[in-house]
Amino acid sequence: MTDGTDVTGLDRAAAALRALPPSVGPVRLIAVDGHAGSGKSTFAARLAARLDAPVLHLDDLASHEELFAWTERMRDQVILPLSRGEVARYHPYDWNLRTFGAHRELPPAPVVLVEGVGAGRRALRPFLAALLWMERGPEESWLRGRRRDGPAQAAFWDGWTMAETRHFSTDPSRPFADTLIRECPGGYEWLPGPSVTAGSDQSITERDGSRTRN
């Protein structure tokens, strides 16, 4: 079954995600992970619109010097305040000025999406209500990203692909995904992730009575 720009499909998925138990204080923290260039940002924006949910982009917590060493910032600036039902205040990184800027607020909404490479990392999984993985391979994803960013970012992408490969080799997210999101013509296909019980044909959107079969 195909979901995505299809409003009915996204509404059904959003309703199921809202029905999940809170995972951080009053918040259901939903991770959207996948390779750089896999379409995470676009998908998260479409899902957030159906959920009326804020989105935290991990690009705001990472930096040139710490592409993946942002776990403490995530914990201190985001997770701890949300766990107390408070507004989180984090300092987004400016990739042009190479510095962290003025704080930005993230409310303890019923659902908060966190989008970016490593959103489903080991240190964050205990705080997630659900982990969604964009089902697009690394080479295809990186090619899409390079085309998007152009030749000026070629050197950055060379370093990034090596760093991402190292990260996922030691701290993979996909094996723990509840749902695999596959982009297809006209929308998205929601498939059961590796964490779903073997032999089940149900995805995360079925756990609360909203059935989505492949």
Question: Would you write up a description of this structure?
Answer:
With 214 residues, the chain is α/β, with parallel strands linked by helices. The protein has a single domain (2-206), classed as P-loop containing nucleotide triphosphate hydrolases (Rossmann fold, 3-Layer(aba) Sandwich). It contains five helices and eleven strands; from the N terminus they run βαβαβαββββββααββ. It has helices at 7-18, 40-51, 71-83, 138-149, 154-170, and strands spanning 2-3, 28-33, 55-57, 88-90, 93-94, 99-100, 104-106, 111-115, 130-134, 179-184, 187-192. Mean pLDDT is 89; it is low at 1-5 and 197-214.
From the structure above, extract its key features.
214 residues, alpha/beta, Rossmann fold, two-stranded antiparallel ribbon, 5 helices, 11 strands, 31% helix, 20% strand, globular, disordered N terminus, disordered C terminus
